[in-house]
Amino acid sequence: MVRQLWLDNDFYGNIFSLQYKTDKTQATLGGGVTRYDGNHFGKVIWAEKGLTSVDNWYDLDAKKTDFNVYLKQQTEFAEHWYGFYDLQFRSAQYIIEGFRNNPGLFIDNTFNFFNPKAGISYSRNNWKGYASFGIANKEPNRDDFEAGSAQQPRPERLQDIEVGIERTGKNFNWSATFYYMNYKDQLVLTGKINDVGAYTRTNIPNSYRTGVELQGACKFSEWMNATANLALSRNKVKNFTEYIDDYDNGGQKEISYTSSDIAFSPSIVGGAGINFLPVKKGELSLLSKYVSKQYLDNTQNENRVLNAFYVQDIRAMYTVKPKWLKEISIIAQVNNVFNRKYEPNGYTFSYIYGGITTTKNYYFPMAGTNFLIALNIKL
């Protein structure tokens, strides 16, 4: 048979905000409510033995209602010193009338969260520093609930500490941000996919991400400037259990790990760009990106990795500002100039058969050299 999987989605809502401002204080009270109506249905458009009179092979609705209200304020409490806070209450409700492969699994869950954040900053003579602490909660997404009635996902909870410093000059700027993110029940990709190629996620009881993010820019002359960014991180699962199907004895074999890398979490990500302005309205950019190796699952197994990759792009842009329009830009870009062969995504699974553990790795390769031409118009 030949099948088609369809989505018919509507998203609507309202947001609001009230702002208050004085010489030393800025405050905002806001919020919003949104509704997502998603109809998931499938059609069989051809079958070897003929079609039945059923219009839809399945027809399952899913609805999500999201409400939030927040209050945030920043106040200069001393010369060059600022304090800020952001308090949010958020409620998310899912109503899911089954899944294609599990039509009897009905979901009606409401998640209520309080997400606070507070910090302090200092700004003087082109220097700026800040420190903050926040707690954030996030509900699972629709696909996470399809795990089964006995494996329903839990919401994520994050405690985040950040410290940053920034310097701005006439022809340069740079910044550094240090962070530590401690997760409870983080939902992470495990390397598994479903039958239409969508990734599945699972809760990890305890995990963390920590690192530093660096970025900078420099203007060498009126016709040349450069930008760069670098993120160095450590992303760990504190305790993780791998389950491998055992076809020899039945059931699954359990393997425990005390501190392994989180799947799809490279420890180094960097980018750089050199921009030339040969004419007044034109710009030519040489862009580079580097991503270190990533693991396909949470076992940190060297036989289940995505190799590091480094790619370069070239972009040319010409911008004009006619009287009858705000701006028109013509953009031409060549991606992966040197035709690198690399895979930024994939999945893996393992099983035991005949006394041998077999691991299967699958990869999604990126395109070789490719190009695009774009026209941007600002009214």
Q: Could you please describe the fold and organization of this structure?
A:
The protein has 379 residues and is mainly β. It has 2 domains: 1-153, no CATH class; 214-379. 0% of the residues lie in helices and 73% in strands. The protein is built from no helices and 22 strands. It has strands at residues 2-21, 25-46, 58-78, 81-99, 102-124, 127-138, 156-168, 172-193, 199-221, 224-237, 240-246, 252-257, 260-261, 268-276, 282-291, 294-295, 305-306, 309-320, 327-335, 345-353, 356-364, 370-378. The protein has a 16-stranded antiparallel sheet that branches. A 4-stranded mixed sheet has the order 12-11-20-21, with no helix packed on it. β14 and β15 form a beta hairpin. It is globular, with a radius of gyration of 25 Å. The two termini are 48 Å apart.
Spans of at least 5 consecutive residues with low confidence: none
| Structural class based on helices, strands and sheet pairing | mainly beta
- Give the overall pLDDT as a whole number: 92
The helix content, as a percent range, equals under 10%
Q: What is the element string, with H for helices and E for strands?
A: EEEEEEEEEEEEEEEEEEEEEE
Total separate domains: 2
Distance between the termini: 48 Å
Helix segment tally: 0
- How many whole angstroms does the radius of gyration measure? 25 Å
Tell me the overall shape. Answer: globular
Largest sheet: 16 strands, antiparallel
Q: Give a count of the beta strands, DSSP E runs of length 2 or more.
A: 22
Strand content: over 45%
